[in-house]
Amino acid sequence: MDFEDTAEEGVFRALARAFLKENAPPPPEAGAAIVSTDLETARAWQRAKADAGFAGILLPAEAGGRGGTVMEQIIFDQEERAVGAPSDVHFMIGLGICAPTILQFATPEQIARHVPPLIRGDEIWCQLFSEPSSGSDLAAARTRARREGDGWVIKGQKIWTSGAQHSDFGLLLARTDGSVPKHMGLTVFILDMKSPGVEVRPIKQISGASHFNEVFLDEVHIPDARRIGKVGQGWKIALGMLMNERLTVGRVFSPDVGPLIRVAAQTEINGAPAIDNAMVRERLARWYSEQQGIRHTVSRVMTALSKGRDPGPETSIIKIIDAAREYEMAGFALDLLGPAALDRAGGADAAPALIGAFLEAPGTRIGGGTEEILLNVIAERVLGLPGDIRVDKDIPFDAAAAR
Amino acid sequence: MNFEFSDEMIMLGEQAERLFAARDARKTARAVLDGATHRYDAALWREMASLGWMGVAIPEAYGGAGLGAQALCIIAEQIGRSLAAIPYATTLYLAAEAILLAGTEDQKQALLPAIAAGERIMSFVDATTGARPGQVGRDGTIHADALLAPEGEIAGSLVLAALDADGEIGLFLVDLSQAGVKRAPITTIDPTRNHGLLTLSHVAAERLGSGAITRATLDRLIANAMIPLAFEQVGGATACLTMARDYALERHAFGRPIGSFQAIKHKLARMFVANELARSNAYYGAWALSTNAPDLAEAAAIARLTAIDAYHFAARECLEVFGGLGFTWEADCHLYIRRAKLLASAFGGTVKWSETLMAQIEPRYR
């Protein structure tokens, strides 16, 4: 066991540091409102990284990536965060979910056309999976693709599509055959988001923000050359994407106890500092222990990845724990602040961010696999417990949908 | 980064797992609980000694193998998993470490080889706190009533943290074969970990080393022991999950294995989540202990907290999965409930260790 870089890792870290020192834009001023990085700044930074071989580190060099190792990606992420470089939030779905899928299942022509501009940030990608009537039960997608001439015509609706409003392309899961059971009749396509018949409508969340969209697809034409994999192979492709998604989601955040300790130090309970209250201290200690447990679990996952092993569904524990912590910690901080927390504008300095986190957290618990689905995944794939009884599994989709 | 045990350590763990399974350590633990076997699993203890497992963390100069703290943790996990009724924890995580920390060269030479050979079972008591702390007089003797001592009925010697004649903290060695030592049995929640009440009537107490130690040093000695102890807890919690999983596959209700119901699946999955979190923190503790990392005290408290929580949760939910059967004396579920509670209570539970942790991290964040 050690936490030191190997010789090669040390060389790469030095390369990354030198590049970042020379090229990274200055971080936002301390105390500035937390806003998502604007697209043009993020794009310029993505291009700079791509030119230097630091974008798409895990993606093959011939497709515009680096062809590097997991540890190189992790090291670059660490160093990039340390200098406060612009967030890659706009490109994460493309880089983390879409590109690996395209590389695995697409034709050489499709790869050559789509992956290099994806890595450079010239084209932004989204994934069009969930629908109003199929979220956890993704294989029940109703969006139809019907064959017409040299292509397909899409009709249906997607929902919870992150970043659809900025996207140039999306990977679309659609039903090409309703006469077979649901898992067998799906196909994945590359959808040009600027095609006629595509309408994107942002969804306003309980926090007031709009990260997600509804995407309406009304007789949208997709050439057959933009189909990924075989007709009917969609479910297999989608499953691979979901695993990538859970890894990406697991990477995004782990709420820090630090600000909560500061809130407790600055507030009082019946005239005594909250930080001296035994119940407050026990809660803080528990959350901190979980935070470190997540950190060390990530180290275990990284070790497995760096040794070429698949860390598997075990990584689900990261999201299960963090989503609960985010909600509970923000809620607890608001309780500590008391009435000062209620005034979003004129109250405690910490209140707006805490209210924001409190209202965002329920989405984290649902997005990228609900807590319940993740528990099922652990139960079935890690612990070997029987799958649920799925009454529609062997019935043609159209017959099941009609019931 | 390489946050995994070495192949050598993993093989040691597998070897321990096989031995404890082959000797059915849990069965002997139950026999101890039932009063059918006397106090501890002496045969298993001897066999472990012959394999050199008492001495894994004792330096080679004192008859050990010098494999370090990680090896101790690896064996601890399998002890916890198998519920082995042996005096490993007190003898090695505390008493042997106290001797290594404070003892003179002569004391180390006299004591550690016997411990490494499995010939000497040790007790450890911290008598420095409470209304009447233990105090060793200027004549080098101590008088103390009713010291609650782990391995108190079976230990040959006691490492006692007590006040010296000047009121400073010292570590003292008390030979429990002296006249003036009286032992009384005591039934704790988990008799598979021996405890006894010791009455010391002006018996000789030999100071380990030549002078007093600080409260911080004593705290550190105890905190360090919480890391291998966390491995025992993680091992126990893992055993609970395995046992409950196996039962959920075998037991049918409403025409299906109960493990096909989401209520049961989610219960087991949540046990897995808690166990893995505790395991990650225990692993980090093992690394911190073996490298004497700057954040060792913090790592110990964190390993302790999550291990206590995971074991309590797993033991309780395991019993629940077994239903009424789990509540019977015959089923093994209560052995884990007992052990989980004993290990949690032994050195203070989550409230104490939360406070210990907060004292470490609060100044850094304020």
UniProtKB/TrEMBL annotation, chain A:
Top-level division of the source organism's lineage: Bacteria
Chaperone is among the record's keywords: no
Alphabetized SUPFAM superfamilies for the sequence: Acyl-CoA dehydrogenase C-terminal domain-like, Acyl-CoA dehydrogenase NM domain-like
Cofactor(s), names only, from the UniProt record: FAD
An MF annotation (GO) of this entry: oxidoreductase activity, acting on the CH-CH group of donors
Domain called Acyl-CoA dehydrogenase/oxidase N-terminal: residue spans: 6-122
UniProt record similarity statement: Belongs to the acyl-CoA dehydrogenase family.
Protein name in the entry: Acyl-CoA dehydrogenase domain protein
Originating species: Rhizorhabdus wittichii (strain DSM 6014 / CCUG 31198 / JCM 15750 / NBRC 105917 / EY 4224 / RW1)
Automatic annotation (TrEMBL), chain B:
Pfam families in the cross-refs: Acyl-CoA_dh_1 (PF00441), Acyl-CoA_dh_N (PF02771)
Domain Acyl-CoA dehydrogenase/oxidase N-terminal intervals: 10-119
Gene3D superfamilies recorded: Acyl-CoA dehydrogenase/oxidase, N-terminal domain, Butyryl-CoA Dehydrogenase, subunit A, domain 3
Keywords assigned: FAD, Flavoprotein, Oxidoreductase
Domain of life of the organism encoding this protein: Bacteria
Annotated Acyl-CoA dehydrogenase/oxidase C-terminal domain residues: 228-348
A GO term, aspect molecular function: acyl-CoA dehydrogenase activity
Keyword Oxidoreductase appears in the UniProt entry: yes
Needed cofactors: FAD
Coiled-coil annotated residue ranges, if any: none
PANTHER family linked to this entry: ACYL-COA DEHYDROGENASE, ACYL-COA DEHYDROGENASE FADE28
UniProt family annotation: Belongs to the acyl-CoA dehydrogenase family.
Protein name, UniProt field: Acyl-CoA dehydrogenase domain protein
Native organism: Rhizorhabdus wittichii (strain DSM 6014 / CCUG 31198 / JCM 15750 / NBRC 105917 / EY 4224 / RW1)
